[in-house]
Target: Polar amino acid transport system ATP-binding protein
Amino acid sequence: MTAPGSGPARPVLSVRGLRKVFGDHVALDGVDLDVHEGEVVVVLGPSGSGKSTLVRCVHQLESVDGGAAYLDGELLGYEQHRGHLRPLPEARVARQRRRMGMVFQQFNLFPHWTVLRNITEAAVKVHGQRPEEARRRAVELLERTGLADKHQAHPKQLSGGQQQRVAIARAVATDPRIMLFDEPTSALDPELVDEVLSVVRDLARTGMTMVVVTHEMDFAREVADRCVFMDRGRVVEVGTPQEVFEAPRSPRLQAFLTRFAQRQQRADAAAPAV
Ligand SMILES: Nc1ncnc2c1ncn2[C@@H]1O[C@H](COP(=O)(O)OP(=O)(O)OP(=O)(O)O)[C@@H](O)[C@H]1O
Model:
């Protein structure tokens, strides 16, 4: 597997021929993807198409069965050894993983810690930030995510949307090279979705490099630099939101967008008139 090129145009994240198999099910079937500095890539596709598996493999929460992913040109999870690839020791995997910020569907906050401690703990203990610097940064992030008055709250005192905003602040506080969002609003009640998406949107505007797996089509249209459409473990189409939504080329993407539009129409028809 050849590492992606060097130089200023080298992608932050490169995925080459990534393959992942669960039992006899091929979840990723040779996925290629480049994400460049400051780019927001939104991954769309039907349920079960491999979107979450892709970001989980990049973050090395799943081993891979073929292909490779590179962060700033460095092979993730494996090293060359006598002409073969072998898995990296866990400590080195953890070091690589720390350069990526991951936000999951579930917020995974520590219930007994305050919001402030949830954000600063890893920044200090794992990333070596000075406590006062980590605190200053956490306070700034809580302001940016609309949680300035929640420093001392505990997770159970917050709504799901607020907890997810804390989880995003925690990931950003470690200054990752790239943020990976795995359906960050899927576990939320519908009325809480927008407050979380608006935080992700604001981060995108700061020039953060990110990959966002989501079913939120309006968000994809508005925020993505590029949309990636996956189906059955493959990248079927990649393009700007305009290309993907207004001029889909593949029949599978066309069918996916038609199904989405029909669902939307049914939901609009069922909504009570205001
Ligand atoms: N740990 C696992 N064990 C077995 N099969 C798995 C596992 N994780 C994912 N799969 C399967 O791999 C396929 C891809 O799953 P994945 O979660 O990546 O899809 P997705 O596109 O993110 O779907 P959704 O939009 O519903 O979250 C699915 O068929 C899923 O059932």
